TrEMBL record:
It comes from the Bacteria. Residues 308-317 have a biased composition (Polar residues). The lineage of its organism: Bacteria, Pseudomonadati, Pseudomonadota, Gammaproteobacteria, Oceanospirillales. Residues 292-317 are annotated as: Disordered. Residues 312-733 form the TonB-dependent receptor-like beta-barrel domain. This is TonB-dependent receptor. It is a multi-pass membrane protein.
Length: 764
């Protein structure tokens, strides 16, 4: 249960002198302060307005039921269904525990809440987002059902959705692709700063219709307010400070400032984060790795500290937005600098054979120094034509580079220059059908330069068209969509190739009762091989492998069925998801025996280090299936305070057609949560058990289970002009040795031990 939650509740009054068609309301936040300049649209109607300086608004609506789409800037974006009758003339926004069910997921241009989507989704925002902030996105999301993390130490991780990550999970910022190098290798960081996020959204399952083949496993969308469609009146902003104990020695600061007037808004932000080498319980190397190498724990020196895991980052953003009743137009620029260590000598992909123990080779650790500058343009026109409700246009350009440092020497320089254009229109209802028609184009110029560059320079252009429609029949809403995509790849030293693919989906959401919904969705998705999968060749210093691509890989096809049951009663709320995903030509890195020589991609013999594991990309049919459960029940529910008990669980099973298990598949996890909310105080206690993972791929080492106990405390102090949130978070309070099976470094880099982080967030 979290503080910043909303409900549009009706205040019924006699309608003396008021026309039944005129509907008045007021928007206020949790402190009963008016929400100014919020955009209010009536879904399915050609009506919109804005709240004034007192939060008041007026709509001319006849008697009936309507859904209001309220975009309140930093206060949130949410839906509320209201019923207007002759004796009802006023509506007020106030705090309610069901805010999370009203939040609009902006990654879906049709702007649904998670309850109304045919596929499962997760959203983090408000105080929940503040309390769960960590060094990276993967760690923030990993406790959600169906989510785990692929990490390369504490500083670097990518979210894993239902066992899929890398090139199968698309990272976006405000619906635009995050064009970094994180899909090239797991040790490359996701270049987005969690401290600046206003909301994090996850679409679980194929989202290729809206975002292309890179979203065959799902989408993680981060939203911020660099471009603010709702504008700004006066000066607002805030600051946040976070301090960690000796386990991580976290020092994080972030500040934001917003200003403007009617028709114009500007935004500034800056951040700085620093982490030391993490303290760990026990040894960095797992007992299975030590046994495989013939070592004992007494021989190892890496105990109590995860060497080379420190990180240091800073950056900032500038944004401007012009807005009016016609729509908005915004520009922004963002800069990120980060340096981080890569602990241990990592395995890569399905590496079954442990790499040499630290201290035997490569005594100096590998570090990565990255820089990214990103430019964004976004615009939206409201009702530009009679049949069009909204017309969105977005463009981004990313200039990214990082160097892999081996001690003081530069090993490899990675550069990625990428541009993306995305546009779609949302049309007004036609015979009951509502939907979007759009186009997307991206251009990526990638290079890896240096003695150990393992991916050749390449240029990739992707063009696509997509169309999604939905229609409601009383309790039933159906969704249909299709996307056609063409990918042109130019790799230095190889012929240019152009490949096409078609993805489609169909699904429905059936409202069984006022609080119960059944959602079913089938998606056929196609993914073209990435440049890394097709053309890699060479030693990768950070992962300590020799990688060999396969130019003859065909496209990967997924047929995914999702079934979700969402329910809400007085005593029980929750969601149960089941899915089955059949892959035709699943692409993965198969490990081969190293005989000291390999054939390059042109058929020539190349002699290599005989101690390096050899990774050769291939493909085979595979199936991934699983179940996700999240249930909550109130133990105490009184005015002013409440106590809720929650249950979470998820299970994944993934096999190749040969019967072999896929590597790095997360184990069964389950747990309990306890949430207490009293006036300005919030307390959340969670216990999550991760089971042993013994279903491993060929020569993959098993992983022991562990228990995570976490505590979150927050206290809010509110005045007429400001809002202060004090918070404290404790992680791994049992101080257990915790290794994520989905991590490339699970046998070399466990999670940090028991740690505490305290902080304060100030907003005005």
């Amino acid at each position: 249960m979290y503080f910043r939650r909303f409900l549009l509740g009706g205040l019924i009054a006699s309608s003396t002198g008021i026309y039944a068609a005129e509907f008045n309301g007021q928007l206020v936040n949790h402190a009963q302060k008016p929400i100014i300049n919020a955009q209010i649209l009536v879904r399915g109607e050609s009506l919109q307005t804005r709240s004034d300086e007192q939060g008041n608004f007026t709509l001319d609506l006849p008697e009936g039921e309507y859904t209001l789409d309220i975009k309140a800037g930093s206060q949130g974006h949410f839906h509320q269904t209201i019923r207007i009758s002759d004796d009802q003339q006023r509506v007020i926004v106030h705090i309610d525990e069901n805010h999370d069910k009203k939040i609009v997921i902006t990654a879906n241009p049709l702007e649904h809440t998670r309850l109304d989507m045919a596929t499962p989704a997760v959203v983090l925002s408000g105080d929940e987002l503040v309390l769960k902030r960590s060094a990276n996105l993967g760690e923030m999301l990993q406790l959600q059902p169906g989510m785990s993390v692929s990490s390369f130490g504490p500083a670097v991780s990518r979210p894993v959705i239902r066992g899929l990550s890398g090139a199968r999970v698309l990272m976006t910022v405000n619906q635009m692709t995050l064009q970094d190098a994180s899909t090239t290798s797991a040790d490359h960081d996701v270049s987005v700063e969690p401290l600046l996020a206003d909301q994090i959204e996850v679409l679980k399952g194929p989202a290729t219709l809206l975002y292309g083949s890179g979203a065959i496993g799902g989408v993680v969308n981060v939203t911020d307010k660099k471009i603010n469609p709702q504008g700004s009146t006066g000066l607002t902003g805030g600051a946040e400070l976070r301090l960690g104990d000796s386990t991580t020695e976290e020092r994080s600061m972030v500040a934001t400032l917003n200003g403007g007037n009617a028709g114009f808004a500007w935004h500034l932000d800056a951040f700085s984060t620093e982490y030391s080498d993490a303290k760990i319980p026990g040894h960095a190397e797992s007992k299975y790795l030590l046994e495989a190498e013939g070592h004992s724990e007494e021989e190892e020196e890496h105990e109590g500290t995860l060497e080379n895991s420190a990180s240091d980052s800073n950056g900032g953003s500038l944004g401007t937005t012009w807005n009016d009743d016609w729509g908005y137009f915004g520009l922004s620029v963002n800069r990120i600098n980060k340096t981080y260590g890569v602990p241990g000598h990592a395995e890569h992909d399905e590496d079954p054979v442990p790499a040499p123990a630290p201290g035997e080779e490569h005594e100096e650790g590998v570090a990565i120094d990255l820089e990214q500058t990103r430019f964004d343009i976004q615009s939206e026109l409201y009702q530009p034509f009679q049949s069009i409700d909204r017309w969105f246009f977005g463009a981004s350009h990313t200039d990214y580079q990082h160097v892999e440092l081996e001690g003081e020497e530069i090993g490899t320089l990675f550069e990625n220059k990428a541009s993306e254009f995305r546009s779609y229109v949302t049309h007004k209802p036609a015979d009951g059908w509502e939907g979007i028609i759009g186009a997307q184009y991206s251009n990526r110029d990638f290079s890896a330069l240096g003695d150990e560059a393992f991916v050749p320079p390449s240029k990739t252009q992707v063009s696509s068209l997509f169309w999604v429609e939905e229609k409601s029949f009383d309790q039933l809403k159906i969704e249909l969509g299709i996307r056609a995509e063409s990918q042109r790849t130019q790799v230095e030293g190889f012929e240019t190739r152009t490949k096409t693919g078609v993805s489609f989906s169909s699904g429905f959401v059936y409202t069984l009762s006022s609080g119960d919904k059944l959602a079913v969705n089938f998606a056929h998705a196609e993914r073209h091989p990435s440049v890394e999968e097709g053309y890699s060749f060479g030693e990768h210093a950070a992962t300590q492998t020799f990688e060999i691509g396969n130019p003859n890989l065909r496209k990967e096809t997924s047929n995914n069925l999702d079934v979700s049951y969402r329910f809400e009663t007085e005593h029980l709320t929750g969601e149960i998801n089941g899915y089955w995903n059949q892959f035709d030509g699943f692409i993965y890195g198969a490990y081969e025996d190293n005989i000291g020589a390999v054939l390059d991609l042109h058929g020539q013999i190349v002699f290599i280090d005989p101690d390096l594991p050899v990774v050769h990309y291939t493909q085979q049919d595979a199936a991934i299936k699983g179940v996700e459960i999240q249930v909550k029940t109130p133990l105490i529910s009184e005015q002013g305070y409440g106590l809720n008990l929650g249950v979470v669980a998820d299970f994944i099973e993934a096999e190749l057609d040969s019967g072999a298990y896929l590597p790095r598949i997360p184990p069964l996890k389950y747990g309990l949560t306890l949430s207490y909310d009293y006036d300005a105080l919030l307390a959340d206690l969670s216990w999550i058990h991760y089971d042993d993972q013994r279903k491993t791929s060929s020569n993959e080492l098993p992983t022991d289970g562990f228990n995570l106990l976490e505590l979150e405390l927050a206290y809010r102090m509110t005045s007429a002009d400001s809002d202060i949130l004090w918070f404290l978070r404790g992680k791994n309070l049992l101080d257990e040795e915790a290794r994520d099976h989905s991590s490339f470094l699970k046998d070399l880099a466990p999670r940090a031990g028991r740690s505490w982080t305290a902080g304060i967030r100030y907003q005005f």
